[in-house]
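quick one: biotin bound model?
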Amino acid sequence: MGQKRGPAELKILHYDSLESTNTTARRLAEKGAPEWTVVVSEVQTKGRGRNGRNWISPRGGLWFSILLRPVGTVEYLRILQLLVGSIVCEVIEDYQIPARTKWPNDIVVESGKLAGILIETKVTPLQVVYAIIGLGVNVNIDEALLPEEATSISTLLGRSIDRDILLQNILEQLNEEYDQQCENDKIVADWWDKCIHRNRLVQVDIEGKTIQGVNTGLSNLGQLILKTKQADLIVLDEGTLRINPSQL
Ligand code: BTN
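yep, here:
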């Protein structure tokens, strides 16, 4: 992990509509905005998901990006992603929702996806110049407006919740834990404790191939470890994971 930096002050910028909070945060980062600048938008017209996918971002969701300037190398970003995932999962669990983490960057329940994380960065061979942590949480949204595999907090609870409190809880928790500079092993172990597919059969699509195996763990770099039918151990850096037999 990078070196200790001390408590950070949050600067929250609130918009009604943006193309993507990640794009606005990146623009601010290029202009030298400080760490913990947070960009929130009620609606995104060109929200981005992983692998170039669109991220549907109607009113009622929580769409925001946090600018960080982590001291460390690119390998740390995968760990940072796990840390963010664990925190969002814990904050959602506080609403009595059985939220779980799903590799590499989702927060889910058995019936669907609740939140996703998209980290975009500027890096040099030696260091991370900045990281934009983009977070999308399906909060008070009618499930019919979301992609088929998604659900929302309001659908699960049968009522709306206060999005400002949710945002505040996520930011406070992340601010605190980022500052504590925990060991990678602890961050990975915390994430794995909450993982929906731990020791379950999964399929991972990667570069046109599908690999099937039991997910027996995560490496201390946050890579997925699969045990295949042939009893080979495979370690994956990336891919799109599906849990068998569910379609999550
Ligand atoms: C994924 O699961 O594919 C990642 C989704 C990340 C969506 C968030 S919403 C706020 C931020 N702005 C974006 O355009 N994307 C991220």
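Residues 75-93 form the longest helix (19 residues).
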